[in-house]
Amino acid sequence: MRIAVDAMGGDYAPKEPVLGSVLAAKELNIATVLVGKSEEINKELAKYEDYPRELITIVDAQEVVEMDDQPVIAVRKKRNSSIVIANQLVKNGDADAIISAGSTGASMTASLFILGRIPGIARPAIAIPMPTVKGVSVLLDAGANAENDPKELLQFGIMGAIYAESVLNLSSPRVGLLNIGEEETKGNKLVQEAYQLLKASNLNFTGNIEGKDIPMGLSEVVVCDGFIGNIILKFAEGMASGIFMMMKEAVMSSTLTKLGALTIKPSLKRLKESFDYSEYGGAPLLGIKGVSIISHGRSDAKAFKNAIKAAASAVEQNIIEKIRSAVE
Asked: What is the pLDDT of residues 116-134, one digit of tens each?
């Protein structure tokens, strides 16, 4: 197995993608293909000596899709860019999955245009892992689509359940439909019709859930349209950052609180790790004919290593074929 890593994607490229690949080789024994400007990648690799060199190869790509590039135009015109060539490696069978922390729009566009959709899938969806008091849930769509229809929400539930069970190891995941109330008659026409489709499916559908139920872990799979999902994602990121900032200010306010903080430091560290996106590596773009992981733009080496691990697991579990069969 070889995972293609967009070495030029992300705020800290190529340093962090390269180190993440080195860690994946050393700790996980997973092979990667670093795609990008070979001279810069080799310069970073030269910093490390004790990694299994046979597990890391380089494919040169001299163009980079910038964050402010128009995704569709950039993918069409920058044929020698790292994100385009990395997806092409997967399409040609020279790699088994693609990871990028670059432009989300470009990552989605390249994977959709080059790899294509799984037959029967109307639209792909970004499935984002969300920490909860019970562990982790997966929310989709987290922003691949601004508008959806009921059938697409049903497909999101199917794909999310397969990913949650196969990659996140959640047995018989509960699927919940995000709504403004628990009652079957609540919400707009979209969610009311989607409710009936999900109810009639063979998913472990538990009905509507509200926003407050997401962090409580009432459903392992949370289904919503991409517009709402992206708002939920950005709000959760901001809320987590705000809470930790307020906690830090509170514990540093006096000598007594500083002493008290020392006693609970291990617990606070575990709490912070549970909200750390690097623990999950990235979000899969589900519904395309290949494993594509979209990582956070600020991803560090740990995040890249975990994204490589998640991609390898998705390939091993053959989620593409599972989604294809479920949709058929």
From this structure: 999 999 999 999 998 888 8
* Pairing label, strands 97-100, 291-294: parallel
Q: Compute how many other C-beta atoms are within 10 angstroms of the C-beta atom of residue 270.
A: 9
The shares of helix, strand and coil residues in the chain, as percent rounded to the nearest 5, are 50, 15, 35
Tokens of 328: 């058929």
Could you tell me the pTM of the whole model? 0.89
Contact 226, 141 (CB under 8 A): yes
Write the DSSP string, 20-51.
Answer: HHHHIIIII--EEEEEE-HHHHHHHHTT--SS
pLDDT digits (tens, 9 = 90+) for 255-309: 777 777 777 777 767 766 666 666 777 899 999 999 999 998 989 999 999 999 9
Look at residues 101, 77, 80, 39 and name the one whose alpha carbon lies nearest to residue 308. Answer: 101
Q: What are the structural domains of the chain? A: 1-121+287-318 (3.40.718.10)
Nearest to 100 by CA among 313, 308, 315: 308
